[in-house]
Amino acid sequence: MGVIKDRFKLKADEVANNIKDVLKEHGNRKIGEVTLSQVYQGMRGITGLVTETSLLDAQEGIRFRGYTIPELQQKLCKAPGGSEPLPEGLFYLMLVGDLPSEDDVHHLTSVWQRRSHVPNHVFATIEALPKSTHPMTQFVVAIMALQTESQFSKKYSAGLNKKDYWEVVFDDSMDLIARLPRVAAYIYRRKYKNGEHIQPNGLLDWAGNFAHMMGFEEEDFKELMRLYMTIHADHEGGNVSAHTTHLVGSALSDPYLCFAAGMNGLAGPLHGLANQEVIKWIFEMREDLKTDLPTKEQIVEYVEKTLKEGKVVPGYGHAVLRKTDPRFTAQMEFGKKHMPDDPLVQTVWNIYEAVPPILQGLGKIKNPWPNVDAHSGALLVHYGMEEYEFYTVLFGVSRALGVLASLCWDRALGFPLERPKSVTHAQVKLWLEGKDEIWGD
Length: 441
Ligand code: AMX
What we know:
Elements: H1 2-26, H2 36-40, E1 54-57, E2 61-64, H3 69-75, H4 87-96, H5 102-114, H6 120-127, H7 135-146, H8 151-159, H9 165-192, H10 206-214, H11 219-231, H12 240-249, H13 255-266, H14 274-289, H15 296-308, H16 326-338, H17 343-362, H18 373-382, H19 391-412, H20 425-432
Antiparallel strand pairs: 1-2
Helix pairs in contact: 4-19, 5-9, 6-7, 6-9, 7-9, 7-13, 8-9, 9-10, 9-19, 10-11, 11-16, 11-19, 12-13, 12-19, 13-19, 14-18, 15-17, 16-18
The site of amidocarboxymethyldethia coenzyme *A has 20 residues, from loops.
């Protein structure tokens, strides 16, 4: 790991020095204004975070260190005979800022293989939960049980110099990423496959081995996992899972504590749980309409019914994006290549034609287009993974790559405790009446 760690530190030191200079000269420059609506409505559009790993453009979608998803599919190293990027390569890119060589990617694969040991008490902790427990709850509990392994926590208690924080956060992050597929696969096999567990295969890459441990040996499914783990990894810094991991990290909580917190956010239906909600909603629609391939007219009626019941159409809309999510498009391309005749996948495409005009017609929805979650479930069901409650765990394993690479940056740049100001509504009213100068004028 030494080489990658050294490269990361060199890059981070360069950026840290530049930040010092920039703040010395321009620290008082204003970068925007904040309106009252933004304060009350989820802080949309307020720039308040620095995240190095990726950047989201409302029209174009995500870029990881400047590279779009199709560019990553072209430029990142693949598994032998495969055509999807290895997520190890994306992690390197997010962490170091440069495209990795093939050797770098293989190095990461073997480091994560070596560090993937999960202590028995973690499995025992999972076993203590009822099997009916939601997989995301089991996942978070397992991450918390793994926290006994945190080097940061041990070294901090023993007395750690501030300038060395980054190094132990880096080590913890690598260990955690290495261990997550084992933990997630254990939860999957425990809940859905009678607890018949599958040992890791040391010859496989990180995502391929994850597929193997869950019990999916088809090469196409491994390819899907490589794509899935790549495209779900990061979506700049303000989304709930990334922001939570970063915020908790600002208290110097160790990477296990931070990541578990982020995963609790991912488990919300407006964020990562949407992928299970999408497939559940499509299954219910098919059952309701008694057909595996509803017509567009039937879909339109079903969407209208969903909206009339005061529910959201899962998989559509986004807090930042204003176009079709390129992560949706990448999955659609995968579907066209591997399973163009699958009725469930075709239904996802028919929904894509039917839903945007309806949402647009409501007048209040800022983005009527599909997000990443609108497509993922149908691809998984195609290969036999129908247990949709597990889908957010897959999302979580992938998200670890982005949020933990970011956490390494946070510590290497020495970002301080995060502590924005809050106000009461009564105070806002006084301010509006000119009786309180909370913000001045
Ligand atoms: N179906 C129905 N109504 C929707 C909608 C949808 N898909 N998306 C937004 N709306 C509604 C909102 O609920 C809100 O209604 P209100 O004014 O009555 O409260 C109104 O449209 C305006 O919302 P917005 O500004 O366009 O969206 P937002 O930034 O507040 O919320 C999001 C974004 C994703 C939470 C929202 O679009 C949504 O609930 N989508 C469905 C759930 C989903 O797919 N989540 C996954 C997002 C991606 C991810 O994180 N994994």
